[in-house]
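Comment thread on ticket #2218

A.B. wrote:
> Attaching the input chain for the structure job we discussed in standup.
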Amino acid sequence: MDVRLRDVVEADLEFFLAYEHDPEAVRRSRFTPRPREAFLRHWKTKVLEDDTVFVQAVTVDGEVAGSVVAWWAADRRFLGYWLGRPYWGRGIGSRALALFLERERNRPLHADPAGDNTGSVRLLEKHGFQRTGTVRHGDDEHVMLVLA
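C.D. wrote:
> Ran it. Output below, let me know if you need it in another format.
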C-alpha cells in the first residue's frame, strides 16, 4: 500500500462527508455527523480558510482514505483524524499519523478520542501520546492524551 499525505482539495470533502456519516464511525467516535451544508461550511470556513489549521488528506494508492488535522483550541494544539471504514485495521492510520507528526512540529499536541474507541487510543499511544486523564464531551467520556 502506498500511503501518502497531500493538501486537501475541495473534491476531497465529499469523501470526508461520507466517512463522517458511516454509522460505525459515528458509534466509535461519539461524534454526531453534520448535515451536508453544515459540514461543507465548517470545512470551507473553519478548516481550509484558517491559516492556523494544518490539514492533510490521507491517500492510499491514490484513493482518498481520510484526513488528519491539527488546530488550536484556546492555548492547546489538538490533533484529529478520520479514516473511511475500508481503511481501518490495515496499518494505514499508523502510517498516516507517522507522516503527519513529521510535518506538524507543534508540541505539546493533544488528542481526546472517545474512551471506548480503543483502536484510536492505542494508535495514539503507539506514536508516543501519553494519557493525562479524561474529559467529558456531553454524556461521553474521552481519554485525554498528550504528545510532548
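A.B. wrote:
> Thanks. Noting for the ticket: The chain has one domain: 3-147.
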